[in-house]
């Protein structure tokens, strides 16, 4: 009997730029939902690290929508790290993503 990806020793780390997730979903008219991504990754192994980085305050104007996105991330066991957009440059979260877990 062959082993499936879910039974394998493959360990996966998922790092998400929340600004890109929100912007991308909005651009193509989809709901902001990380669930389908996690479902696909589970076909390949166990997702052991789930972290997202970004500034929802600046990129999502409605507090109701921000709370809905936060609840969705929490329900998918994502660790949220708020990276405030405090400079004129957009790539604050990108820099944080590139420096973690090297």
Task: Describe this structure as you would to a colleague.
The protein has about 100 residues and is of the alpha/beta class. It contains five helices and three strands, in the order E-H-H-E-H-H-E-H. The termini are far apart. The model has no long low-confidence stretch (mean pLDDT about 80).
Draw up the topology in text:
Blueprint lengths: L10 E7 H10 L7 H7 L4 E9 L1 H4 L3 H13 L3 E4 L9 H8 L3
Parallel strand pairs: 1-2, 2-3
In short:
With 102 residues, the chain is an alpha/beta fold. 41% of the residues lie in helices and 20% in strands.
Features:
102 residues, 5 helices, alpha/beta, 3-stranded parallel beta sheet, 3 strands, globular
Low-confidence stretches: none
For the sheet with most strands, the description reads: 3 strands, parallel
Radius of gyration: 15 Å
User: Mean pLDDT score, rounded?
Assistant: 82
What structural class do the secondary elements suggest? Answer: alpha/beta
> What fraction, in percent, of the residue positions are helical?
40-55%
Number of strands: 3
Order of helices and strands: EHHEHHEH
